[in-house]
Amino acid sequence: MSSAAFSSISLDPGCFGKGETTIRKRDGRRLCIRGSVASSPQSLQFANTKTQKSEEIVRIGVLGASGYTGSEIVRLLANHPNFGITLMTADRKAGQSIGSVFPHLVTQNLPDMVAVKDADFSNVDAVFCCLPHATTQDIIKCLPKQLKIVDLSADFRLRNVNEYEEWYGQPHRAPELQKEAIYGLTEVSREEIRNARLVANPGCYPTSVQLPLVPLIKANLIELRNIIIDAKSGVSGAGRGAKESILYTEIAEGIHSYGITKHRHVPEIEQGLSDASRSKVTVSFTPHLMPMSRGMQSTIYVEMAPGVQVDDLYQQLKIAYEDEEFVILLDKGAVPHTRNVRGSNYCFMNVFPDRIPGRAIIISVIDNLMKGASGQAVQNLNLMMGFPENSGLLYQALFP
Ligand SMILES: NC(=O)C1=CN([C@@H]2O[C@H](COP(=O)(O)OP(=O)(O)OC[C@H]3O[C@@H](n4cnc5c(N)ncnc54)[C@H](OP(=O)(O)O)[C@@H]3O)[C@@H](O)[C@H]2O)C=CC1
Ligand SMILES: CC(=O)N[C@@H](CCC(=O)OP(=O)(O)O)C(=O)O
């Protein structure tokens, strides 16, 4: 897409250094940009998206826009009143337009994607980093310090860098930055996220598991032993890169477990549950690959604390989430389906009595690319920039 499609606007030099930049458009209107300011006067190009943008625009870079989570960010920001994309990067697809890589995004008038090494961050206030883990640390540590960052990779999720090395098979290469990172499970750490510069967006499985378990553990309603998580993911969870293991013929008409006892989301889940209980929690976690493109279900088997009934778990989840927009406790007895959250930022959950006395079964579903990745990332950046948490996220599920 040619840059002739963009309207050029120049920064007002008088506003530099005030934490807020006013830009004057050619038609004389003034736009106010929140957040960090560019270091020198320059020409700025904004996409003429068809969506009405507000007067207050944060300039966004999407690193890894040619991948699944990056393209979801681009889709969501098309309908975001306060975020405007000024930079997109790709690796193998650098130099291409977003519409040539993702035809469903062809109507987005955006600059072509560039390689990270060629990216100009002077017109960017915040980035969504949608890159493979390990690659991410090296790139984030080189970014301008004033940028707000939501990192969708696993690189900054584990506070203990030794644990990162143990589970990811290589030393952490940005341990100083790790100290600064806030784990971004929005409903649990909202206040810290608001003030963060670097947010580590949670993994998809850990999101689906922690949302129901954290309130129950905090209220001491379940035993910390014998937590069993049987989880299932759509294939987009594995990213867009070509791999034999995710060929149609390997996935269709069957399901299989993987990462048994050693999936790298185990320490992330245990970190979150241990924080909730203020003691070490361990879990049995087995993920499965399902023949569907998106969606995730965690079925969680727990033992209730002495004297606790399933209704106590239900009431606790109701209290925890009654004011939350994106976490929905279904009516008693209603079964969460992944298809009812597909394409939306919702987590649907419910709790059921097991036939074995004293045990309960919790079911939680999300879209791995939305609440499990890009949706939650937008929710977090909304908080970090002081916008309504649901901005750009008011999508209902796609059905059927
Ligand atoms: N998919 C999911 O459901 C979830 C993913 N995540 C995490 O989000 C991140 C992105 O995942 P996803 O979008 O699925 O992955 P994809 O494989 O679909 O996309 C990866 C992106 O990173 C780019 N890239 C790859 N290698 C490099 C490199 N060395 N330098 C610069 N850019 C590079 C790719 O560019 P190109 O295609 O042009 O080569 C592409 O844009 C990962 O860390 C993943 O673990 C988190 C939660 C859920
Ligand atoms: C189906 C599938 O392969 N899913 C990915 C998890 C995707 C995700 O949330 O991952 P990150 O921790 O990488 O961000 C996996 O099991 O590794």
Automatic annotation (TrEMBL):
Pathway: Amino-acid biosynthesis; L-arginine biosynthesis; N(2)-acetyl-L-ornithine from L-glutamate: step 3/4. It holds the Pfam family Semialdhyde_dh. The keyword Secreted does not apply. CDD domains: AGPR_1_C, AGPR_1_N. It catalyses: N-acetyl-L-glutamate 5-semialdehyde + phosphate + NADP(+) = N-acetyl-L-glutamyl 5-phosphate + NADPH + H(+). Signal peptide: none annotated. One of its GO terms (biological process) is L-arginine biosynthetic process. The active site is at residue 204. Its EC number is 1.2.1.38. Belongs to the NAGSA dehydrogenase family. Type 1 subfamily. HAMAP family: ArgC_type1. This is Probable N-acetyl-gamma-glutamyl-phosphate reductase, chloroplastic.
